[in-house]
Write a structure and sequence with these properties.
This protein has 13 helices and two strands. The chain has a two-stranded antiparallel ribbon with strand order 1-2. Bound molecules: zinc ion.
């Protein structure tokens, strides 16, 4: 046995080719390429006869090759020219096969989407918390408006939540109700004559029953009696201190006076106009 180098093998191959061409002068280059194309076509046809089988085979071969040549494959993937080529190839493939692309990503999201988001959130926990705090501190007044508006939008949901809270904290609710009742008993209940006068004067002034706090008409069952100076600040049950308002408006006013309430309302409007 004589071992040949690469160049020597090439030279020997070329010499053999020359000899073969001299012996077969009818064989041209065009014929040579035709034969090669034929063989390639045959190969393709055979591959497409059992696509699923052959794809499996080629995939297995690819994975085996990758396991055997890990470093080579890693270098190839990190090669920038290869990356460029791969990016362009991917773009062209995705433009041609949009349905396949969307189906693939949907499948991927169902399999790994939630876990991916979880991991990302855990990784960037501190940054997210800081951002949230900063945003809240910068827009404290606006955030309170957002909360109120969402509360009003989901009014029925909130009623159910309140009922749940009452059932869960029965004793606390009883204590609070007792305190409220005691405070009202000290003041004394409102006279029926004052009730009648309040409703009649309200209708005379506005035409229909309207809210003192938001100046919008009140539907049946939504009316409540409002203390202009709240009871906790020394307000009384006399006619001059009373008015008729929405239940929601009354709760929102809480323990602020009329001046504080209208000041707040004007501020909120200004903030909302800047935002929208
Ligand atoms: Zn109102």
């Amino acid at each position: 046995m004589v071992l040949l180098t690469k160049i020597e093998r090439l030279l020997r191959h070329r010499l053999a080719n020359k000899k073969w061409r001299k012996n077969n002068p009818s064989y041209s280059k065009e014929l040579y390429w035709k034969n090669i194309e034929k063989s390639r076509k045959n190969g393709r046809d055979n591959y497409h006869k059992d696509i699923e089988k052959n794809r499996k085979k080629s995939r297995e071969q690819y994975y085996k090759h990758r396991e055997r040549n890990l470093e080579y494959c890693r270098e190839k993937r990190q090669n920038q020219e290869y990356k460029k080529w791969h990016r362009e190839y991917k773009k062209i493939w995705e433009q041609k096969n949009k349905d396949k692309k969307s189906a693939y990503y949907k499948k991927w999201y169902v399999r790994n989407g939630k876990e991916y988001h979880k991991q990302w959130r855990e990784k960037n926990k501190e940054i997210l918390n800081q951002k949230r705090k900063e945003e809240y501190a910068n827009n404290k007044e606006l955030n309170s408006i957002y909360r109120r508006r969402s509360y009003l939008k989901n009014h029925q949901r909130n009623i159910i939540r309140c009922r749940k809270w009452r059932e869960e904290n029965k004793e606390l609710f009883k204590k609070l109700a007792k305190l409220n009742n005691l405070r009202r008993q000290k003041l004394g209940y409102i006279d029926i004559n004052i009730f009648q006068k309040l409703y009649e004067d309200n209708i005379k002034q506005f035409g229909t029953l309207t809210c003192i706090l938001c100046f919008k008409p009140i539907e049946f069952g939504q009316d409540s009696i409002e203390h202009k100076i709240p009871v906790s600040r020394g307000g009384t049950n006399q006619y001059e201190n009373l008015g008729i308002a929405h239940k929601i408006c009354n709760i929102r006013k809480h323990n602020s006076t009329m001046g504080e309430w209208f000041g707040k309302q004007i501020k909120e409007k200004e903030l909302w106009q800047i935002k929208t």
